[in-house]
User: Which sequence fits this backbone?
């Protein structure tokens, strides 16, 4: 990912004055505060013009907030794709979004990005994958695909067989599994981190994000442990990606917020972000 692909989306600092009418920016902020988070999501992704009426073969999508990735039904490796049937050009660089959820975030990137890239969304909730793929068909995109997969089981074999280079892996607001005994269910586990380190192209990036500090620290520590492979982006002084004193990125560098990011920020929560580059 070159420096031109990293966009800043920092919010302006708005000030209210009791002695004057609110500015246009302030009025916009007041309107957003009154909107529900689903309305904010629809507004953020309005340019996609997605059909929210679920097609008959998909049925009603009832989102399960958490599933147990260690149950036997999720431990079967996903079938390797015939990449030529999935993408128009299989030599393009690949971005993989692990735990892509509804897929709107990845769809926006695939439709809006000026970079020539393919996008792969991995999601463990099957109906979300079905709905996302129906949207891919509606948008007639040939640079994006969603598939049902447990990343800790299938990531290695999927990206290893992809003909082009893997240049970006994102893990954004994964299920937190708060209880200590459930931490083994978290998606960022040592084998997955090692697999990313092996398969990511030199110079490629890893973008991590969570609205739960404990989860963000856990992900950060696992990638920091491979300091000989990954370097945090704030060490690159020529890139305009501002961080706080703890090294957390102050804004999403990919140009649009995820749905969970929108929900969390509408409730006043902080988002903790890290971006790493693989050393040459």
Assistant:
């Amino acid at each position: 990912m070159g420096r031109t692909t990293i966009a800043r989306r920092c919010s302006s600092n708005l000030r209210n004055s009791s002695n004057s009418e609110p500015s246009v920016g302030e009025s916009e902020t007041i309107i957003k505060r009154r909107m529900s988070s689903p309305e904010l999501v629809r507004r953020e992704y309005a340019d996609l013009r997605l059909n929210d009426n679920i097609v008959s073969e998909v049925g009603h999508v009832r989102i399960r907030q958490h599933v147990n990735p260690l149950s036997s039904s999720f431990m079967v490796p996903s079938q390797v794709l015939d990449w030529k049937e999935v993408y128009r050009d299989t030599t393009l660089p690949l971005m993989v979004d692990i735990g892509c959820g509804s897929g709107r975030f990845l769809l926006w990137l695939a439709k809006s990005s000026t970079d020539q890239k393919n996008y792969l969304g991995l999601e463990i909730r099957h109906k979300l994958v079905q709905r996302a793929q129906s949207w891919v068909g509606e948008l007639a995109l040939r640079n994006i695909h969603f598939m049902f997969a447990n990343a800790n089981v299938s990531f290695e074999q999927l990206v290893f067989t992809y003909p082009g280079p893997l240049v970006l892996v994102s893990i954004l607001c994964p299920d937190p599994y708060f209880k200590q005994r459930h931490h083994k269910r978290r998606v960022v586990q040592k084998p997955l981190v090692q697999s990313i380190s092996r398969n990511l192209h030199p110079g490629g990036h890893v973008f991590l994000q969570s609205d739960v500090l404990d989860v963000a620290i856990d992900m950060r520590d696992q990638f920091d442990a491979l300091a000989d492979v990954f370097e945090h982006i704030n060490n690159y002084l020529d890139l305009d990606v501002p961080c706080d004193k703890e090294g957390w990125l102050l804004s999403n560098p990919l140009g649009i917020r995820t749905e969970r990011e929108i929900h969390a920020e509408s409730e006043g929560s902080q988002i903790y972000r890290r971006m790493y580059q693989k050393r040459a």
